[in-house]
Amino acid sequence: MSKYYDDALEFAKKYIAPYAEEMDAKAEFPKEVFKKLGEHGYMGLMVEEEYGGQGKGVQQNVEVCLAFAQYAPTVALCYMMHNNVMPKFYNASKEIKDKILPEIVKNGKFIAAAGSEPKGGNNSNSSETTYKVVGDKAIINGSKTLVTMGGNADYYSVVCTNEENNQVSWFIVPSDTPGITFDTNDWNGFGMRGNTSCSMYLKDVEVDLLYLIAHADTINKRDIQIGDNSFIMGIACANAGVTFGVCRNAIEHIKSRVYPDGKKMIDFDTIKLHVSKVYTLAQATKSLCLEAGRATDANEEDQDEKCVAARLMATEASMEAAKLGMRIGGGRAYNNKGSMTRWLRDSYAGQVMAPSVDALSLTLGKNITNKDIEIK
């Protein structure tokens, strides 16, 4: 593995692991973790080098998210949301880049994506949230739902529709802009509970047109593809991390478990079979995620299909691993001792994150049967 992965693992052990249980128990955003992410330069991973960032692609994003997710998938998911916005900046004006990107790189500021809506879900080509242009300002009105890091990010990438010509656009809206409110009581997630994915309301929110970074119909399609695949891979990595967390937790448990007659749990063949399966799932999901990230950066013809396959594999593998982890944990896990139930809940959370597993499975099936893609 690369230095990015190894360094991120060390960061996760030192700064993420100590907060993992607390952020899950309280369903609170890990503010201290994100402060450390900023201090260590992680917010600038996908920021262009011209603006002080590292200028890295989906491959490095995958490696970092994989490492973070092994200790707290919710951190990897939130971090991915920030990086997912970066490709849209490639189309933005130099003026807005000069204003925001140095804040991200030097001061650790981060961005959340506000795209999902109560009726239409997450659709970057359509939005019921609207804006109207008044002079050099845009007035935004509407609402968003399940905004990851809602109420905690420094900026929000808001998708909205021009009232006059129906053009869909993205604005970067500072969190302290008057008219923005969040319903933080709306969040009580089943798994990956540190996301604080809550509702966001925008009432006559006024921003300079300077903050308009892209239009859906004019943005570079390659940048959209990079952003979309980065998003899908972020969720894949979060679930892949579950398999590693289960494996690590299971091994710690069986090594310490000694029965009254002196027998050790680690000596039972059934337990070894379970651990073998979990380890295999972990390595398989990691390999597929890394390959999908590599294919995206290389702009290969089957990059989209590999990213979807990685997401599907990681989601199913995490649930299978967590199921086996509960068997290994036995009564201790059932009694909610240790972290196995957290990994179980985190694994099931990935089932419903948009795009859903069912929608992605159908898309993948259509693509590999209708497109002229070489299976290799």
From TrEMBL:
<dbReference type="InterPro" id="IPR009100">
    <property type="entry name" value="AcylCoA_DH/oxidase_NM_dom_sf"/>
</dbReference>
<dbReference type="InterPro" id="IPR036250">
    <property type="entry name" value="AcylCo_DH-like_C"/>
</dbReference>
<dbReference type="InterPro" id="IPR009075">
    <property type="entry name" value="AcylCo_DH/oxidase_C"/>
</dbReference>
<protein>
    <recommendedName>
        <fullName>Acyl-CoA dehydrogenase</fullName>
    </recommendedName>
</protein>
<keyword id="KW-0285">Flavoprotein</keyword>
<dbReference type="InterPro" id="IPR013786">
    <property type="entry name" value="AcylCoA_DH/ox_N"/>
</dbReference>
<feature type="domain" description="Acyl-CoA dehydrogenase/oxidase C-terminal">
    <location>
        <begin position="234"/>
        <end position="351"/>
    </location>
</feature>
<dbReference type="Pfam" id="PF00441">
    <property type="entry name" value="Acyl-CoA_dh_1"/>
</dbReference>
<dbReference type="InterPro" id="IPR046373">
    <property type="entry name" value="Acyl-CoA_Oxase/DH_mid-dom_sf"/>
</dbReference>
<dbReference type="Pfam" id="PF02771">
    <property type="entry name" value="Acyl-CoA_dh_N"/>
</dbReference>
<dbReference type="InterPro" id="IPR037069">
    <property type="entry name" value="AcylCoA_DH/ox_N_sf"/>
</dbReference>
<dbReference type="GO" id="GO:0050660">
    <property type="term" value="F:flavin adenine dinucleotide binding"/>
</dbReference>
<dbReference type="InterPro" id="IPR006091">
    <property type="entry name" value="Acyl-CoA_Oxase/DH_mid-dom"/>
</dbReference>
<comment type="similarity">
    <text>Belongs to the acyl-CoA dehydrogenase family.</text>
</comment>
<keyword id="KW-0274">FAD</keyword>
<dbReference type="GO" id="GO:0003995">
    <property type="term" value="F:acyl-CoA dehydrogenase activity"/>
</dbReference>
<keyword id="KW-0560">Oxidoreductase</keyword>
<feature type="domain" description="Acyl-CoA oxidase/dehydrogenase middle">
    <location>
        <begin position="112"/>
        <end position="205"/>
    </location>
</feature>
<dbReference type="Pfam" id="PF02770">
    <property type="entry name" value="Acyl-CoA_dh_M"/>
</dbReference>
<feature type="domain" description="Acyl-CoA dehydrogenase/oxidase N-terminal">
    <location>
        <begin position="6"/>
        <end position="106"/>
    </location>
</feature>
